Amino acid sequence: MFESICPLAHIVALGWCFLLFAPAKRIRWGWLWYAQILATEWGFATVFLAIVLTLIDSSAIWFLGLAIYSIQSRSCQFYSSDISLPALSGMQKLNQAFVGIWPFRWPPQGETYRLSGEDLSHLKFFPSPGGRVCIHIHGGAWIHGSADQLTYLADVLKCHDYEMVSLNYKKHPEYLLPEIMASVEETFKKISAAYGAEQKFLLYGRSAGGHLALMLAAKFPAQVQAVVALYPVTDFSSLEETATDSDILKTKSWIRNLFAGKENLKSAMSPAQICTAEMPRTLLVHGRNDPVVPIQQSDLLYSHLHELKVPVSYLRFSKGTHGFDALSEGLSMQTFKQALAKVLES
Fold it and tell me: 41 is in which domain, residue-wise?
C-alpha cells in the first residue's frame, strides 16, 4: 500500500495548504505573498490542483476535501444601513470559484488626458458615454505605483456608465505625506474645473490611494458623490500605537519618515479624525488577513461614520489579504463587485 503513495503529491498539497491557511504575517512580502493571493483567491486553481493530485495519488484525496472546505468556509460580513447583499451559500461559493477560471484581465490602455490644453501626463483617461466620472487613485505605500495600476476597474465602471480618470501623484521619499496630499488636491481641483461645477465624482482608491481618496472626500464633500476605499489607513496615531517594528514595512519608522519634522500633522492627515457628517456615501473594504494595514483601521472609520449617520457600507472578508483585488476575477473580487454595484446604483 505504502509503495503506491507518491510523496511529491503530498508535498505539493502540504505546500498549497500552507498558502491557504498560514497567517499573512508569516508570509511577508515577495513571491510567497503573491502565491498566497493566488491560492486563496483563485478557487479554480485550488480545486483543479486537488483533483490532479488525487488522480496521481488517491491517498491525496484529503487535499481535495480541504480545498472545498477552504472555499466554502470563506465568509464576508456586509454592514450597511440602507443596502444589502444576498447571502452566499456553499454552492454559490463553489460556483464563484469556477467563474474565475482565468482570474486575470488584461487592463485597457487609457489615453493621456488634457486639461485646458495642458498635457498632464500623470492622468489616464478611460472614456464612457454615461456622463458619470470616477477618479481612481492608485496604491503603493505613497512611494510607488502608477495610474496604470489595476485599470481593469475601468471596464467594471463602464458597465455602470462611469468613465474613469486615473491619476499619479508625488511620492515619498522625495515628498512628505502632506505634500503628497497637496498634489492630489491640486489635481482634483483641475479635474473638477475641467468637468464643470455641477459634476460630482466617485472616488476610488486602494491602500495608500484609499487613504488619499478618503481625505479628498472629507475635504471636498460637496463635489463627491461617493468614495470607495480598499484597505486604507484611516488614523495614523492608532496605527503607530498598535504597530511594531517587526510588522511588514516596519510601520513605526515608516510613519515617522512620512511625516519627518511635521509630526503634528498626523491628525490632519487621518480621515477618521477629520471627517464630518457632510462626508459622502462611503464603501469600506478590508480583509481580516491583511498584514500591512490592520483591519482595525477600517473598523475605526466605519464606527465613526456610523455615529455621524453618514451613509456607510463596510465589506469585511474573513480571508482577504492586502492586495486581494490584484486578481480581477478572484473570489473576494466577485463579492466586492456586487457591493460596488449596489453603491453605484443607490
Answer: 2-73
